[in-house]
Amino acid sequence: MLAAAAAWVVLALLLWRSRVPSDLTLPALDERDFFTAAQLREAHAYERVVRLLLLGSLLTTLIVLVLYARHGARFLRESAAGPIGSGMLLAMLGLALVWLSLLPFGLLELWWQRRHGLSEAAYSDLVVGGWLALGGEFVGLSLAILIVMGFARLLPRFWWIPGAAVFVGIYALGAFVYPYLGAGERLEDPTLLAAADRLEREDRLPDIRIDVATVSTETTAPNAEAAGMGPSRRIILWDTILDGRFDDDQVIVVLAHELGHHASEHIPKGVAWYALFAFPGAWLIARATRRRGGMRQPAAVPLALLVFVGLQMVALPAFAAIGRHMEAEADWVALETTGDPDAARELFEGFSTSLLADPDPPAWTKAFTETHPTILERIAMVEAWEARRGR
Amino acid sequence: MVADDRRRSRLTVAFRLLLAIPHLVWVVFWTLGALLGAVVGWFAALATGRLPQGLHRFLAAYVRYVTHLHAYLYLAANPYPGFAGDPGYPVDLEIDGPERQSRWKTVFRLVLALPALLVMSALLGWPSAGGGSQQQQQDGEWTAGGTAAGVAVLVAFLAWFAILARGRMPQGFRDLVAYALRYGAQTSAYVLLLTDRYPSTDPFEPPPPEPTPSRPIRIVIEEDEGRRSRLTVLFRLPLAFPHLVWLALWTVLAVVVAVLNWLATLVAGRSPRTFHRFLARYLRYGVHVYAFLTLAANPYPGFTGDPFRYPVDLEVDGPARQNRWITGFRWILDLPAWLVSLSLTGLLVVVAILGWFASLVTGRMPVGLRNAAAFVIRYWAQTSGYGLLVLTDRYPYSGPSERRVEPEPVERPPGAPEPGAGLAPA
What we know:
The complex is a heterodimer of chains A (about 400) and B (about 425). By secondary structure, chain A is mainly alpha-helical. Chain A is about 65% helix and about 5% strand. In chain A, strands 1-2-4-3 form a four-stranded mixed beta sheet. The termini of chain A are far apart. Chain B is flat, with a radius of gyration of 22 Å. Chain B has a two-stranded antiparallel ribbon. Helix content of chain B is about 60%, strand content about 0%.
């Protein structure tokens, strides 16, 4: 056990290595120096409600799953399937109950976003579309239960080892094929494409395809992402970032940031991090469900759901910290390759006003939910980079 | 009531639509009169709680006349109908005299009738739905036109050829049209305030006018009093997704095996036992999935198509000798059955949607809707078993109700529940 823990720590430390200088100290900044009082007031007011909704939904999820873990096994009578099919049913019903209980929070959040002009999605899309989308989630969940219960029936005590390995394999496969599933169109802007070529040479990356995804019918939030591994590597720009709110220099910083993810191998590292959490997580589920006969019994599935979600909540700060760490590295790479701190600063300020993001949220919010450095931290990194370069 | 010997005059069948022209003109005027009478009757029923005797007689004669006319048009009966809606036609109605009616049901009659009208449109169609179908054909696309025009229209179209060839109306077609006409008549009677009893979609009541021979592919329903779990009903479609994915994967393999089975049956005159067992299991699994999806059954089905484990189950006899000529031309012969099955899918969708709302509100699936869904699923299974899978050379029976099935004793796995009663009472 100790050896496994030591190996875990060593692997985690290896994955934690970053191109951000270890002695980099971020200057303390005051948000009022970058944003007007009105902007800050609006961002604080918006985020306050979002945080309340988040807390409410987390609490509701836990309550629903605790109740379901206690009483969910009674739904076994609604099944004429064998143990694995019944386990699938119980897992799907648990997810369905969570979805149903979170629906009011989702509707409230959508109302809040629409009120602030951040979303144009219809309420019916959230309800009917979400209900239908459950079908896809149920297919994935059923596959997960098939893997877990299938191995548990073969290896009652050690199913978690092959089970976690298969999940890691599926996660890696998903990360690889994800870019091929998108329906984006190739970026055609010659200025941005030329800049991307230059950045790729700086990052010693091969030519990476850049797509534009149309999301402006649903949201006004600007975003971009790096996806894929090896030959499937791709950058996906949301069309909301090309709608004129950000100039070319700022969009080039975005491109540099996403290329920074690829240059730093963040997608494969993400798979590795997933593996580091999957094995102990599966082991803990196996331990927790032993009293209910283990994962070979469908009656253990509601408890397994609670443990799984509970573990995810406990691990939220770790996931958020890993996310922030990677994003900070991508920001640093972007500053190094573009050498354009002014564009980066303006981009981050623009994010805050476009997303109504609190530039300096409370520590607990940052710890649990912020997968990116706060806006103020990102601007501080720009200033630190300038200081290092003597600008 | 059906008192028909299924013999048809080829001459009158050949010109049936033209011969009906006088009736089609007459029915327009009578419909206008009936609508006027219904408005008057609505006020009268609201005031007195029942329909006046004279008005009731007039509207009953109208409903009876329309039923006679449709039976004639759809080839469910042979003789030329009278113009007065008098009793005595081979496909006829029994209509009780005026009874006390709930005023609340009278006030909201048209709204309450909407679900029944939906089912009726799936069975008999609407004039506009027929137009839509025509448009689709003009565009060069063949879709489920029978569904748009109603099952009865498609069945009548197919029966026209069958009668011209054989001089007899196929029993299944006749019974299916009679079922559609009965439901249409009950709905009309409900809308026209002849009764406040809601139309029954149950295809098993009343029993068929003549016994039907047992089929090698039969459905077996375990009585469950219609209880449904509201939670699984609310999420029924998403819950069925894993099954639909699995069924699609299974179908790919089943198609390959079906082709091999067809070749083997053509050569040996009998389906190889291994192929037969696999394809029967696949078909049974499909029945379980569709029964779950359409709320004909409550519990979540297994993924392996095991027999005796699901309340709506399929019994498939073992491999029997099959006619090589029928096997050789199987897919062509199956085409009419596929068209009817496709057309019945419209009814299944309507029944499933109505059943979804009813089960969500009351926690129970109305037995009539459940049995209607089971009928469509049974016909689909027989059509697939005959045409695609070559499990039998017995043609699918399109009648809504089969005579009571007495399954042969089969060795059941330990702990397996006893199958329920047969599809329809004797």
